[in-house]
Amino acid sequence: MKRNQISALVAAMFAGAGVLVAGAAHADNFVDRGNPDNALNGQCIDGTNPACIATKNGTFVATSTTNFTSGTNAKASSSGIAIGDQSNAGSQSGGSSGGGIAIGVGAQALANSSTAIGTVALAQGNTALAMGRQSAAIGDFSMAIGNVADAHGTSSIALGHSALASGDRSVAIGGANPTTSDGVSNGASYDAATQTRAGGTQSVAIGAGAQTNDNNQVAIGSGSVGANNGGTPVFGGTAAPVGGAVSFGSLGHERQIKNVAAGAADTDAVNVQQLKNVNSTLSTGIANVDARVTSVGNTLSTSIANVDQRVTNVGNSLSTSIVTATQNVVKYTDDSHAAIALDGASGTTISGLAAGVADTDAVNVGQLKGTVAPLQTSLSTAAANITNLQDNVTGLNASLSTAASNIGSLQAADARNVKYDGASGFDSVTFAGPNGTTLHNVADGVAAHDAVNVGQLGSGLASLSTSVTNNVNTTIGNLSTSIANQIGNATRNAVQYDDDAHGGVTLGGQGAAAPVGLHNVADGVAAHDAVNVGQLGKATDTLNQSIANVGNSVTKLGDQVTTNTGNIAALQQDALQWNANLGTYDASHGGNAPQRIGNLAAGRNGTDAVNVDQLNAAIHDGTSQLDALAVKYDDASKRQVSLGAGNGGVPVRVTNVAEGNVAAGSTDAVNGAQLRRTIDGTAAALGGGATANTDGSITAPSYKIGGDSFNNVGDALTNLDGRVGSNTTTLENHETRLGNAETNIAGNTTAIVGLQKDALQFDPTLGAYSAARGGVPTKVTNVADGNLAAGSTDAVNGGQLYGVKSDLEQQITQVSNQTGEAVKNVVKYDVDGNGNRLNSVSLVGGNANAAVVLKNVAAGTDDTDAVNVKQLKSVQSNLDQLGALAVQYDDASKSSITLGGAGGTRITNVKAGTLSATSTDAVNGSQLYATNQQVSKNTTDISNLQGNVTDIANGKAGLVQQQNPNGAITVGKDSGGTSVNFSGTAGDRVLTGVAAGVNANDAVNMAQFNDALKTAAANDKVRTAATDANTTWIARADAGAIGSTATATGKNAVAVGAGSVADRDNSFSVGAKGSERQITNVAAGTAPTDAVNVQQLNDNISAASTQAKGYTDQRIGQVYNAFNDLKKDMYGGVASAMAVAGLPQPTGAGRSMVSAATSNYHGQQGFAAGYSYVTESNRWVVKASVTGNTRSDFGAVVGAGYQF
């Protein structure tokens, strides 16, 4: 059966056509590769179309001016490339999608500039890249690399087996644990628990089994699960809203974060040591408060300072406040304002610094003040105020007790006469009552030295107390307001240290929401000087230039190569070879200086050499992707990690943090629960209803004092201090005046009767001395100056009170002057025309246009911190080091690269280069080793061959040998054979130089042969006759007969043997008809006219039989194999048909279905995938399916049906 008949049989089995064994059978739409004329379009089979070529194995390559395809049913649209059966570099719907690349069986590049490489790889998004079996890059600009990797989101990246990046701009890096290596016939199979999934927008999952399910989540480490976003921050204050979370583990599988540096900004992580410090400070502060409250009664002062002393204290306190307020103010070094020296012992960090713009602006990196310092200050202030409060309360109680005792003493003298003391002078009166004497009905005093009654005294004291209180309170209030305003104005626009250690400066104040610009900054010189934008710009330009230089240098590596096109000797001279002394491949040439390796193909495996393009891509990826996604140290010192640096500075939550070790020296991070316990303890210590809220803030306490409510400890204590001070002053005045009255009453013993009406007496109904006269209040005048000293109980007069007022006003003036002087050299924030503070600081020297050097600037760590010159120099040093280590071209021509190793530079991990006449690849040591081995073998073989040739030339070897120069020459003495054939391609050869034969087996020469002929000719008329019938008869002279009755009658006939007959011309007979003889010992014939012996005949018959049988078997086997292939093709076709039949379809109106099915028939696997749709009217059913099988046959079918 011919090939076209077998093909027709196969087609007829599926198409229903008849089979003609004797002729050709044809089926509709049949394409016969063996008979191009039977094809629907023979151009792709017989090669008549120059853009469509049929290859020997039956596949087709289609080329054109705009695209390239290779493989069965491969398709490519404009500028597309499709390589592999069923590959498609176009669009799913057949539309226009240009520039796609699809390489691999079933690879699909369906969008503009998309690339799909691998079996059934799918690149569906614009410029998407899918590499690996069954990889899928669905989103625009997405990238999926790895078997079954899936990048579904826009600009998403999936790297690793089964990695899934479904969110936009998400990244999934990690490989699942595959459970089978056969993903073609059985589909992708892997352990779902180890699949890496990035499910949220801008989420990142790194590690086997890492998962993110919400936007902006980050899961790092195998099995890590992203934490939920959108919750309320654990602590309040100035913490920014949650913009994402970073997870380093999962519930029940948390990981510790070790070696965490102490946090400084509000969004920094704190370590366990910081938490311990907070606990220690809180414990110490609370213990101090408790101890001071407990010891109030034991440490009371027995005396109260007078008003003048209090005013002095006020002045001192205000001076202290000013000093305190200004000692943390950052000042210019002198009035020229040309420089600012930060005086931190170990340098001062400037944080909260806005990005500079002008050349003299400070560059930022910034820190916010920690939350511990305000709490420590509040606790210390509370402790001091409580102590002062207890002192004042104690003094008040003592004054009240003294006053009560004095009043009781005066009451005892009520019934006694009052007399002057002594017989003359009359300058004192002593009341004789043992328990004191009351002087009643005393008229209101008028003159300066008149006695005052209780009414006058009470009214006067009340008025005095009110006046003094009001004046003092007003004055102190005004003073406090003035000073507070001045200090506030000064400090509001002043740049201050964050604390007394002068270790940091936060521009904008601690907790400032926005960074602040620092302008007019002079160029930094010393290591800790601040650098301005101009310097940073220069450094950036230098960095950019260095990077550009490095990039140019690196790019130059890929542009120059050397050509290795010589023979083996040249290759051995010029190839890259293994250097045993160096233990690596040595790129030096002839042992001289190192040489370059050019035209290097892109490496693919882990141990391949990479070219410059790959290096540039790696550099680009390292800077644009890894830096933006990795959690890493801020700088080489590894002292700080800033989370969220790649998302605009938005803080990032660190979740799943295990409780850190709270102990001295611990650097562990603490979690929210630990800090929550600290906040709860603080709220309990404050009292007054203070509570710790769920967000970490503390609800302010409420203290009720004198009818007023205060919500912080400082305000409450200040109020108490003022009230106690005022009452103390009033009681002191009362006590002094009562003492004077008692003295006067005691000195008037002789005139007591006359003074009954005029004496100042105690009024029991009032409970005090009354200066009323006739029921009318009177004044007490002529009061001498009271003693103004600690412990004095003298009354003070108006003159003394006026002096107090004057002193107080003078103190206020001094304080105001001190305040103005203190803030003169303060560095302030810039203000607008309305006096509103701006988020910038301009350092202004004596000349407003002169830049100011900012010294003693600590090294910046956060993005908004100022950097100093030392850091800038470090950057330049790193750039210098980078330039020193980069491999660069020798010059701009890019014609050579000189590696800088002193003893040559080894290039390792070089992939094997292509060895061809046009190859410019670098070769590695293994290739050169293989070449050297072959050269060594060839050298050995050539040496052996040369020895053999020499032996042959000397007659020592070969078929023709001569052991001695004049000895006999032997031919084939060591081999078998019964004849020697001298014939050549031009026919028989003449053997000359043959000596006359002597022995029976010697060859005869022509001379001997001619002599023999002459002898025979001379005797040609001789006839021999016998007397009997046994006569040999030779009828012709040119005939011969040997033997009894032998007859030779034919021309040139020879008859040998008795009775032999040679009756035909040119015949040789050894017998006669009926009396034939065997010719034995016949050597095997060699020439065409030689006789063959039985052995030759048998051998040739056997060989012919074997050849005929082999040919027959081969042809039968070929027919069987063709039929077997045909049978498998039929089984595959049946399997495909079964798979199509197994595709389900929707049953509801308006419903669509995408389905897939597989089948197996007689060992062949069939696949089918389809789409079906039922119209809204439920009348029409439309189906479209594609099929394939393990015989690499594919098909498609579209159908429609109407149901009724």
**Stretches where pLDDT falls below 50 for ≥5 residues?**
1-63, 181-187, 232-243, 292-308, 366-383, 410-416, 557-566, 1020-1030
The coarse silhouette is elongated
Distance between the termini: 49 Å
Spatial strand arrangement across the major sheet: 1-2-3-5-7-9-11-13-15-17-19-21-22-31
Structural class: alpha/beta
Tally of helical segments: 16
Helical proportion? 25-40%
Taking the sheet with the most strands, its summary is:
14 strands, mixed
Kindly state the number of beta strands. Answer: 52
Estimate the strand proportion: 5-15%
Radius of gyration, taken over Cα atoms and rounded to an integer in Å: 59 Å
Overall pLDDT level: 69
What does this structure look like?
The protein is an alpha/beta fold. The strands form 15 sheets. A 14-stranded mixed β-sheet has the order 1-2-3-5-7-9-11-13-15-17-19-21-22-31. The chain has a 7-stranded parallel β-sheet with strand order 8-10-12-14-16-18-20, with no helix packed on it. Strand 37 and strand 38 form a beta hairpin. The longest helix has 48 residues. It starts with a helix and ends with a strand.
